[in-house]
């Protein structure tokens, strides 16, 4: 697994109770489940930021082509 570190997180009482129930149901620790959830969240956010950065580079490039909003709406309605 590699090196780990400890972090304190504040949760609402409701989320903490749900996490506790999930931990019991899956025979996992709350720490394991929270760690996995954070890993998945970070991966998704990293992917999204990367996609946005790539789209911005493409939009800023000299050959970028843009379509008017009205044209996009019109095309979608025809489908």
What do you see in this structure?
The chain is an all-alpha fold. The protein has one domain (13-78). 70% of the residues lie in helices and 0% in strands. It has helices at 13-26, 30-60, 69-78. The model has no long low-confidence stretch (mean pLDDT 96).
**Number of helix segments?**
3
**Backbone structural class:** mainly alpha
Low-confidence stretches: none
- Beta content: under 5%
Count of individual beta strands: 0
Shape: elongated
Q: Give the SSE order as H and E letters.
A: HHH
Mean pLDDT: 96
* Sheet having the most strands: none
How much is the radius of gyration in Å? Answer: 21 Å
Fold blueprint:
Layout: H1 13-26, H2 30-60, H3 69-78
Quick overview of this protein structure:
The chain is mainly alpha-helical and 79 residues long. The protein has three helices and no strands.
List keywords for this structure.
79 residues; 3 helices; mainly alpha; 70% helix
